[in-house]
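Q: My collaborator sent me two sequences in one message, no labels, and asked for predicted structures for both. Can we handle them in order? The first one she listed is below.
A: Yes, handling them in the order given. First sequence, followed by its structure tokens:
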Amino acid sequence: MTMKPFSGLLSIFAASLLAVTMSAAEAPLTIDKASSHVEIAVKATADSFVGKLADYVATVLVDRDTGAVTTSKVAFHFSDVKTGNEKRDREMNEWQQTEKFPDGDFTLDSLTAVSPEKFTVRGRLTLHGSTHDISFPASIAREGARVTVDGEAVVDTRVFGLPVIRKFAVLKVDPLVTVRFHLAGAVAAP
């Protein structure tokens, strides 16, 4: 996969920023993209589908001692959401006004433990040039240096100023989309 200039610059910037801001107990999680994924499930009257985020930059810091995630940000280009149907991808980008609002991101604000591996995640999602608070359940598991983060968030696209898609008065795309993610990686060695 060819990395876009934005992604490469963002990765360098994020790594530099992490080196300056992380405490001695924090370590970056090196994401294994081959075993990680971000998917967006969309329900529609006649043509439900799942889009996959083909590229993204995930910056996750983990406490070396406890395995707790201390910081997380996922940045992406909306044009990197691929559904397997080029026409649908073009229409989706027109709907989202991707030329005007190319980037999105999620920034973690807090994790509240529900059980040792289950959490309520609170953070800010930026999409279509608008930022809103969201919360959702997630699980974080650690086995040695390996960490996996799984979650599912329902996002109401109307909150971000996006119109409900309707065609022929009877076909409709549900404005509530489900974002599912699995991030797997290893804590960087000290």
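Q: And the one she listed second?
A: Here it is, processed independently of the first:
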Amino acid sequence: MESIIKEGTPKTPSIRFDAKQGIIEIKGRSIPENSIEFYKPMVDWLEEYAAMPAPKTSVNIHLEYFNTSSSKCILDIFKKLEAIHKAKNDVEVSWYYEEDDEDMLEAGEDYESIIRIPFKMIEVED
């Protein structure tokens, strides 16, 4: 299975979806022109990955900002991961947020309350 590696831009996050290592990372800002179009390859990739996931899937989300349409797409990604977790696979989400960014902490807590996957909230200093 091919990995997805994308460099971040001022409007899109850097992406690393690595099936062999079981690492999924989204970092940066997510305000793409068309969020659904931007995130569709990742959602499709997870659909395929679910058939043969790594023994442990580590998900690292380190966003400094995302818009409303991105939040829906991120939820779609989490739903795919939740299905992998429900199939008795080890999935863990690390949600990174800046120490003074209450909104990003809250966003992570909101996802954690919706999705049944273990979440770790990790505060990073500026």
